[in-house]
Amino acid sequence: MNILRIAIKELKVFRDFKMAVFMLITPVVLILILGTAMSNMFNGSMAVGDIRVLYQDNSTPGSAIAKQWESFAREAGKSGILFEKAGGDKDGILEVQNSQYTGFTVIADSGLSYYGNNRSSVEGSIVQGMLAAFADRYKLAAEVAKADLKLPANPAQPGAGGGDYVQEASLDAAKQPGSLDYFAVAVTTLIILYSALSADHLIKSEKKRHTDIRLMASPITKAEILTGKIVGTFLLNFLFMIIVVLISKYVFDANWGDNMGLVILVLSTEIVFALGLGLGISYIIRGEASGAVIMIIIQIAAFVGGSYYPSEDSTGIFRTLSSYSPLQWTNDAILQLIYADHISASITAMLLNMGGAALLLTIAAVTMRRREGL
Amino acid sequence: MNVLEINKLTKQFGDFIAVDNLSLSIQDGEIFGFLGANGAGKSTAINMITSLLPITRGQIEILGKNIVKHSKFAKANIGIVPQELAIYEDMTAYENVQFFAGLYGLRGSLLKSRAEEALAFVGLEDKHRSYSKNFSGGMKRRLNIACAIAHRPKLIIMDEPTVGIDPQSRSYILNSIKKLNEMGSTIIYTSHYMEEVEEICTRIAIIDHGKIIAQGTKQQLKAIITNQKNISIEVRSVEQLDVEKLRDIVGVNTVELADAVIRISSDAEINNLNKIIQQLMASGMEIRSVEADEPNLETVFLTLTGRSLRD
């Protein structure tokens, strides 16, 4: 009951006009500005660099498909699409997830499997088109061989029949986020991460108002105080997040997909992570410096995590750094949910968020327990 | 029955001993004054009584129960009015009182009525829905008290509750404290204003360097220094005054100068006023007035600690 009482007290911050402005108007304006200003990054005419596709040949050595594949890969290389054979120790799907390759394809006697990377959606579409063409050509060649006919010099162009041979396991090339769609997600996750700053002030604000004296003198435990404050701040941020999502969905017509429940769940875990980050750092670094540290972390996470531009466009060290950004893994999970109905990335993101939050909140709780006062 | 019993209480921060072997007992119905200069150790002692600070050594009992073993019981029977305002300015007066009283287990209609009673008690009954950020300093101080009394604690600790407020609010608060005491609460009161302590406290302890150096009723404390008398003599100018000659007069202990006033502390039993006046006149000084002061708590404090309460 005391936890609930403290949580409800925290929710009353909602009446603070400045707070409401920051939490609601800022994201809405940011979505609008970034969504409009960056729209050219999301059209279909973007330049495509060299495309690298990893493949694994499981077909019978010397079989027709193996020979056809070798020829196809060689020709594709001339067009800037490099097919690289996977070594025994390489996990193709992992390589694609880490953005080392645009896609991963497995060649078997029964046909082709292709695993794409949603970060390289345009390149992925090109590769899929070429593989479909190869599958059609191979199918045609196989039929010709069966009938013992000579292969015509110019075989037929790819057609719908390729579907029998290509198992599509990548994003639907037709479903891509527009600028507003992308920044509705990216700005929402960014604003959620900013709640780490309010978490940093959760205990500090009590000390500043001297109400920590009353709280500590009342017959409730430190754990109840901390839990109540976390629950209240979570609910407050959850409320703000829902409003921002609804505004972006119904005012800006942003696409949040068909898995809204799961999307909200992923965003909720990010709120928990942000609260853990704020509280954890406020206990690790005493004084006002913790706020500055949190701000720096948020800015770096935002920069490499795709809050201001899609992180799929980053390269080198930034790409590596991006995989450590909570914004990157949360954005990625939500975009995959919306545009590919992929649940696995969201589970990974939720586990990372909750795991990080558990670690940071444990640090806060242990430090608080050892301290005199809150 | 003792509401509070402190036995050999010690608080140590590293090598520094903030409270040193402090013992006292406060009986039901008392208004107990706690006097000490800044850093004397009274806030540290209060923080241990309210469980805000862990005890290094010694014991504290509230209503006969050890506050460490029966923490919830002890806390439930204490109400604290901190020196600093401890209210949420973004909440209304009623919400503040309701929130804090709720932490003591009050629920529903009882919580509502107690919160309303507390606000009425401090004269804020017509400010239920007003945000405390819009209150004057005096009103905030009163709300600070309301937040501490709604759960009807047996022991109320008031740490400088009248700091920085207008005389009208101070008077209101002092009357409220007396009324709370009449209603059955035992009160520990600390203040820098000696006259307040003198006015409302039934018993007083003087704490210095973490130790209680004297305790008792006002009369008992004054009796400690009744062998002293204070004489204030106003003159036209102190330029010609020979302080050493005044000090040489039998019975004179201290001589202090403040503008054109000579303050002399002397043994009460020695009648030396005529010699003092004679000495001043011999120095060619023009005497304007002579006053012999009754000892007050300020004098007691100064005599016992060697410094003023506000030092």
Outline the structure in words:
The complex is a heterodimer of chains A (374) and B (311). With 374 residues, chain A is of the alpha/beta class. In chain A, 63% of the residues lie in helices and 7% in strands. Chain A is built from 13 helices and five strands. Chain A has helices spanning 2-11, 17-37, 64-78, 92-97, 121-146, 179-208, 211-217, 222-250, 260-284, 289-304, 316-322, 326-340, 344-370; strands spanning 51-57, 81-85, 103-108, 111-116, 166-168. In chain A, helix 6 (179-208) packs parallel to helix 9 (260-284), helix 9 (260-284) runs antiparallel to helix 10 and helix 9 (260-284) packs antiparallel against helix 12. By secondary structure, chain B is α/β, with parallel strands linked by helices. Chain B has helices at 42-49, 71-76, 93-102, 108-121, 137-149, 167-182, 194-200, 218-224, 243-247, 273-282, 297-305; strands at 2-13, 16-27, 31-35, 57-62, 65-66, 78-81, 155-159, 186-190, 203-208, 211-216, 228-235, 252-258, 261-267, 287-293. In chain B, strands 6-7-8-3-9-10 form a six-stranded mixed beta sheet, with helices on both faces. A four-stranded antiparallel beta sheet of chain B has the order 2-1-4-5. In chain B, helix 3 packs across helix 4 (108-121), helix 3 packs parallel to helix 5 and helix 4 packs antiparallel against helix 5. At the A-B interface, helix 1 and helix 7 of A face helix 2 and helix 3 of B.
Question: What topology emerges from the helices and strands here?
Answer:
The complex is a heterodimer of chains A (about 375) and B (about 300).
Chain A: H1 2-11, H2 17-37, E1 51-57, H3 64-78, E2 81-85, H4 92-97, E3 103-108, E4 111-116, H5 121-146, E5 166-168, H6 179-208, H7 211-217, H8 222-250, H9 260-284, H10 289-304, H11 316-322, H12 326-340, H13 344-370
Parallel strand pairs in A: 1-2, 1-3, 4-5
Antiparallel strand pairs in A: 3-4
Chain B: E1 2-13, E2 16-27, E3 31-35, H1 42-49, E4 57-62, E5 65-66, H2 71-76, E6 78-81, H3 93-102, H4 108-121, H5 137-149, E7 155-159, H6 167-182, E8 186-190, H7 194-200, E9 203-208, E10 211-216, H8 218-224, E11 228-235, H9 243-247, E12 252-258, E13 261-267, H10 273-282, E14 287-293, H11 297-305
Parallel strand pairs in B: 3-8, 3-9, 6-7, 7-8
Antiparallel strand pairs in B: 1-2, 1-4, 4-5, 9-10, 11-13, 11-14, 12-13
Helix pairs in contact in B: 3-4, 3-5, 4-5
